[in-house]
Design a protein that fits this description.
This protein is of the alpha/beta class and about 260 residues long. About 35% of the residues lie in helices and about 25% in strands. The chain has ten helices and 13 strands. The termini are far apart.
Length: about 260
């Protein structure tokens, strides 16, 4: 049975309800017609030229991303700016784009649950109960350098940056993407270590001198694992509804690498 963009949106909203998105977010259908028939679907963290090329070569009818391709208001849509140029390419080929951002971060089996599972956290629970962001759990006690090496391997990160507060790793908080706002809460919840991305110098300084180890594994590596999980969940729901849709996960090159 065929499905259109509106059908895919309905299923995505079952998985990651838009009501869970932060007020400042821009999740939802950002490009395309709801009536468009979808036979091939591509999942990606971002809309980049790399992802657009894959979508077009595969004949994808729709892309589902984590990061919104449109975040702030647009005053024009031209080829003068790289993101707008990508939207023009997708529009010209009739490819729709839907984004599940902070709602996918906080929902069960979303970004942070998958990250906690990848890092083998036991007795994992929500870190920020008000928003659903972050997770906290335990690991078998390890030296920080040992756990950091495990994180790097588990997330297939090119590198990790470590801030050593002089504590063994046992109670670990995680937040996919940029999670520096959760440093104080991680400390309050008794974490000795926070794994996240995009930690700035003064944020790391505050964490370490407050007694919290920091492992910055990068924005992409902490969020990319959810894509395979989302593909599995969508494929299962499509099969349950007898919808014939091919689901692929884009290959995305890490933006930041060690030279």
């Amino acid at each position: 049975m065929n499905a259109n963009v509106a059908d895919i949106i309905k299923i995505m909203e079952e998985i990651a309800p838009p009501t869970l998105a932060e007020e400042w977010d821009n999740a939802g259908l950002l490009l395309g017609r709801r009536s468009k028939i979808v036979k091939k679907l591509l999942l990606a963290l971002d809309v980049t030229q790399e992802v657009v090329n894959q979508a077009l070569s595969q004949g994808a009818d729709m892309i589902i991303t984590h990061h919104p391709v449109i975040f702030k208001g647009l005053k024009q849509l031209t080829d003068a700016q790289w993101q707008q140029e990508l939207m023009l390419q997708l529009t010209e080929h009739g490819v729709a784009v839907y984004s599940a951002h902070t709602n996918l971060d906080c929902v069960s089996a979303g970004v942070n649950d998958v990250l906690a599972q990848k890092l083998k956290l036991q007795e994992s629970d929500v870190l920020n109960s008000a928003t659903g962001l972050g997770r906290i759990g335990t690991v078998h006690p390890l030296a920080l350098h040992q756990f950091a090496a495990f994180v790097k391997e588990a997330l297939q990160a090119d590198y990790v940056t470590v801030g050593d507060a002089g504590k063994k790793v046992h109670r670990v908080a995680v937040c996919g993407g940029a999670g520096s706002d959760l440093i104080a809460l991680a400390l309050k919840k008794g974490a000795d270590t926070l794994v996240t991305g995009d930690i700035k110098y003064h944020e790391a300084q505050n964490a370490v001198f407050s007694g919290l180890n920091i492992i910055d594994a990068g924005h992409q590596p902490t969020e990319l694992p959810v894509m395979d999980k989302l593909a599995d969940r969508l494929s299962l729901r499509f099969a349950e509804r007898n919808l014939h849709i091919v689901v692929n996960v884009a290959s995305e090159t890490l933006l930041l690498k060690h030279l």
